[in-house]
Amino acid sequence: MVQPILLDEQLCFSIYKAQKQFNHFYAQALSKYHLTYPQYITLLSLWEHGTMSVKQVGQTLSLDSGTLTPLMKRLEKDGWISRSRSTVDERRVDVSLTAKAEDLRDEIYEHVQSCATKVGMDLDEYRAVKASVDKVDEKLMAVSDGDLRY
């Protein structure tokens, strides 16, 4: 007989609960800037990489175009990014940061980091947890969908 793994012992449930807490954490931390978490990580990606195509942003963030398009429209409407057709390939839309996004970058980094210190994790603990979560992600990506069907 199979011994069931109880709900509170399920890794997936722990990650699910932590993800909900992260959503709440970032909603509070980013409310001052009227940004959602997906908008924030889009800005993080652009701050890190510079101008990118919409496709590259989607690949970097693991977001599909159905999620990314409305998110970018809102960021553009709110003055964080600009989108324009590529001069090299007119089928490609490039995304660039605006002066507003560049000007507020360090302030947002500092604000979110100061909120994160309230979590009470030192750098070593933070890195260890992140490495463990990255390992779980890697292992899940290695499982093919066919392996899950019977």
From TrEMBL:
Its main location: cytoplasm. Coiled coil: none annotated. GO terms for cellular component: cytoplasm. Pfam families: Staph_reg_Sar_Rot. It is found in: Cytoplasm. Keywords: Cytoplasm, DNA-binding, Transcription, Transcription regulation. It comes from the Bacteria. Residues 8-138 form the HTH marR-type domain. GO terms for molecular function: DNA binding; DNA-binding transcription factor activity. InterPro entries: HTH_MarR-typ, Transc_reg_Sar_Rot_HTH, WH-like_DNA-bd_sf, WH_DNA-bd_sf. Belongs to the SarZ family. PANTHER family: TRANSCRIPTIONAL REGULATOR, MARR (PTHR42756), TRANSCRIPTIONAL REPRESSOR OF EMRAB OPERON (PTHR42756:SF1). This is HTH-type transcriptional regulator SarZ.
